[in-house]
Structures are given as C-alpha cells and as structure tokens.
C-alpha cells in the first residue's frame, strides 16, 4: 500500500537514515539466531533473558499481533482452565442426588421425597464424569508444561466433546426414559437434572473454544505452547482447589445439618460470595462453630481468585486492546493527513504540522503528535471498557430477570411480575441478598443452587437452576415488601 511508504516519521512508525543503518546491523546479528515464527506470531511466555535477545522487529511483531490471535492463544485456554473444572463440579452435582422429586409443599427444607434413578442413568453419568476429569487432567498437564500440545489438546477436546454430548443426550432422553409419575402433580425434576444440562453445555462450548485454538496452531499463527505466565497457569489449579473446597464444605454441612447435598452446596456458594439470601442458616451448635473458619477461608479464597482473574485476564486484555487502538489511530492519522508535506491528522479537524528546520525540532513535534494519538487512544479504550462493562451488567440483569420470570410461569409458581424478577436479580448481582427478616416472614424463598460461579468471577450474576421447579417453588413465594412485616 502507498500509505506504508509514508511511514517515514520516527515517532510515528518510520525511521531516519541513521535508524535504518542500525536496523541493518541488527538484522545481520539476528540472521545467526534460530528462526522464529513470522507475521507477528505469538510464542510462549519467555524469560527475561529470552526477551532481551529478541530483535526490534520481533518485539514489534509480538506487540502488534492481532487481538484475535491473542484471544485464541491466551484467553481461550484461560477460560477453558477456569470453567472446565467448574463443569466437572456440575457433573458431580448431577450424580449427587436423584433426578426426580415429589415436592412436599409443607416442608421448608427437605422439599419432598426423591425417586431413585435407574442404574444405567447413574452409570452413564459416571462415565461422562470420568472422561471429563481425564480431559481436565490433560489440560492441567498442558498448562504446567507436563504434556505436549499434540498429546494433551486432542485428549482435552475429544474428552469434553464426548462428556458434553453424553450429558446433553441424557437430559434429552430423560422425559421419555425416566418420566415423572403421571398421577402426581407435585412430581418434578430436581436440581441434579439441570446441573447435567449445564455441565454438558459448558463442555461443548469449551471444546469449541479449544478447537479454535488448535486451528490457530495448525495454520501457524502462533506457537503450540500456551502464551501464559506462571501466575496465569496457576489459575486452573486455584479454581480446582476452590471448587474442591466448596464440595467438601457442602458435604460437611449436609452431614451436620441434615440438608440435601445440593442445598448445602448452595448455602456454601451464596455465603462465600457474600450474597446471603438467608433461606438457609445453621441450626446446630456444630454447624455454627464451623461457620467461622469456613466463611473466612472461603471468602479469602474467592477474593484471591477474582483478583487473579482481574489482573491476569482483564488487565492484560486491556493492554492488548490499547496497543491495537494506538496502532490503528496512528495509521489512520497518517493516512488521513498529508505525510508528504509533514501534516498529520490527530482527531476530527485537528491537524499537526511536523515540519521543522532541524532534525531535533522535527522529532520533538513528532513526539508530541504521537503523545496526542496515545491520549486519544487511551480515552477511546476507557469508553470501550465502560460500555462493555455496562452492557454485560445489563444483559445479565435484564436477561436473567426474564429467565426467572418465565421459569415461574413455566412451572406453575405464583407468577412473578417482571419487576419482581428484576428486583430479585438485582439484589443477587450486587451481592446484596435479601433481609433475613423477609425470609423468616415468608419462610418459603428459593433453595436453588445459584451458580454464581459462572458469572461472579467476571462481574456478578444469577444462578443457573432457574428452570428447576424445585427451586421455583421456593422462589415463587417471594412477594413485594409491602406484604411483609418489618
């Protein structure tokens, strides 16, 4: 393109004769080094010594690599490492209790009598879990450089595909092969059934993402090694430890308080994420004594993981987006101006003249112009970040409210209004929760296992079991504040 011939300004991407001579000298020294990926290919995380040995052009290529390559090589593996163990946790929850339940409308906690599942259903579910765990182990081995990409990646992708399709198939055939009793209007599917759906969907989605990463490696856009730092590689291990903590604490409280296992897991999650709906609370002395170490350790664990996600994923992504914005604005500024005459367009109708009688004065003007371009790019980056955060919050709020609103109608609850669903979702997203007195007044609020794990690590969110009649029976008793006694 003709524009590339115009990039003669040192601070705007070009170079003087002296700079070109220095680059020729450096290119001769680089010719004796091992070859590296071309076209801005991303490589694995490098040490300080390896970084210092890179030439200027190699640094520029890594710096200017397209955002889509960064997403495929860095973000997708991080997302898979975070949500893969979470999907396996959902798979465990799908096996923990039977899929069918006869609701007891007079029971505030047990919520009825379970109907045993067929053995083949439990066996197939266990097979799906074992395959998924093997896939997680393979991904963890790749994260820690214990397994090669060409070994670990096929195992992870194929394993999650198989587990995902098994779970989805089980959920699809359940109404016909594991039907509800037709003579009992209170019969419904329990939380475990919906956990199976969620785990299958997450497995398939993560497999698609890792398939895209493998495709990028196959066509040579970046190295087969994940471009992750040591802290980023530890994110998957942190997630596994936290989920194991949640399951273990849920098992302890299920034994101590006599709750269902999934109800105990729900209680642990809403406690550790400081939502605190108040529908569950320990009644025994042992349970209340265990609450102190459980809550302190778990909340610290959650804080560390969220801080890690913010610093390693969100901030690194922001830096990459800022880099691309600066490059695009620099390129457009030169193209929109008159480079032959030394005129550069900054923004709008503002133009800057970089002509000067001396080389030093010209470089100073170019430096000032580049700083203006960087300031404009930083402003645009802040606006983009604010817009995306606002959009994510609104989508989770309004779409999540629609889910709860329609779920109440679908299962014959007390038919929330959309405003009631908005209110409930808002208090969950901002981790406000609802007042304990309100729960005691109604005594019949949701015992849904809200999976804030899926959304709360990125912003805040609602629970996944919004389709469960078991949860909706308790949610359906939620009423506006004017009907409560304070």
TrEMBL record:
The chain crosses the membrane at residues 69-99, 120-140, 192-216, 236-254, 261-278, 290-309, 384-407, 419-436. Residues 25-34 have a biased composition (Basic residues). SUPFAM superfamilies: Voltage-gated potassium channels. It is found in: Membrane. Residues 14-40 are annotated as: Disordered. It holds the Pfam family Ion_trans_2. It is a multi-pass membrane protein. One of its GO terms (molecular function) is outward rectifier potassium channel activity. InterPro entries: 2pore_dom_K_chnl, K_chnl_dom. Keywords: Ion channel, Ion transport, Membrane, Transmembrane, Transmembrane helix, Transport. GO terms for cellular component: plasma membrane. Residues 242-313 form the Potassium channel domain. GO terms for biological process: stabilization of membrane potential. This is Potassium channel domain-containing protein.
């Amino acid at each position: 393109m003709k524009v590339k011939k115009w990039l003669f300004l040192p601070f705007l991407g070009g170079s003087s004769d002296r700079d070109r001579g220095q680059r020729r000298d450096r290119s001769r020294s680089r010719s004796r080094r091992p070859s590296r990926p071309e076209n801005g290919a991303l490589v694995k995380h490098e040490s300080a010594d390896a970084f210092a040995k890179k030439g200027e052009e190699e640094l520029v290529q890594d710096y200017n690599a397209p955002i889509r390559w960064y997403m495929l090589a860095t973000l997708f593996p991080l997302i898979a490492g975070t949500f893969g163990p979470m999907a396996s946790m959902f798979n465990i929850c799908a096996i923990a209790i039977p899929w069918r339940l006869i609701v007891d409308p007079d029971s505030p906690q047990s919520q009825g009598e379970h109907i045993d599942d067929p053995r083949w259903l439990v066996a197939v579910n266990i097979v799906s879990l074992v395959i998924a765990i093997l896939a997680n182990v393979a991904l963890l081995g790749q994260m820690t450089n214990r397994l090669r990409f060409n070994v670990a990646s096929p195992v992870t992708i194929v394993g999650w595909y198989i587990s995902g399709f098994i779970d989805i198939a089980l959920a699809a055939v359940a109404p016909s092969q594991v039907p509800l009793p037709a003579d009992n209007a209170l019969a419904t599917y329990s939380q475990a059934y919906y956990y199976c759906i969620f785990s299958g969907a997450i497995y398939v989605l993560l497999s698609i993402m890792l398939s895209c990463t493998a495709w990028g490696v196959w066509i040579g856009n970046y190295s087969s090694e994940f471009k992750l730092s040591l802290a980023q590689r530890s994110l998957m291990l942190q997630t596994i430890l936290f989920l194991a903590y949640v399951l273990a604490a849920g098992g302890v409280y299920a034994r101590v308080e006599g709750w269902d296992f999934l109800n105990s897991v729900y209680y642990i999650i809403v406690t550790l994420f400081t939502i605190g709906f108040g529908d569950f609370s320990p009644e025994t002395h042992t349970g209340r004594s265990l609450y102190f170490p459980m809550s302190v350790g778990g909340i610290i664990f959650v804080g560390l993981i969220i801080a890690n996600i913010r610093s390693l994923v969100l901030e690194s992504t922001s830096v990459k987006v800022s880099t691309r914005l600066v490059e695009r604005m620099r390129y457009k500024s030169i193209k929109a101006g008159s480079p032959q005459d030394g005129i550069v367009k900054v923004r709008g109708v503002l133009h800057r003249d970089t002509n000067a009688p001396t080389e030093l004065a010209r470089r100073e003007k170019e430096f000032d112009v580049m700083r203006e371009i960087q300031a404009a790019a930083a402003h645009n980056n802040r606006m983009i970040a604010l817009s995306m955060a606002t959009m994510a919050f609104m989508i989770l709020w309004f779409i999540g409210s629609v889910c709860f609103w329609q779920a109440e109608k679908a299962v014959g609850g007390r038919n929330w209004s959309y405003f009631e669903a908005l209110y409930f979702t808002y208090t969950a997203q901002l981790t406000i929760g609802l007042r304990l007195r309100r729960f005691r007044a109604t005594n019949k609020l949701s015992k849904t296992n809200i999976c804030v794990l899926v959304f709360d690590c990125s912003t805040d969110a609602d629970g996944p079991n919004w389709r469960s009649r078991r949860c909706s029976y308790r949610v359906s008793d939620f009423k506006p504040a004017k009907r409560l006694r304070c």
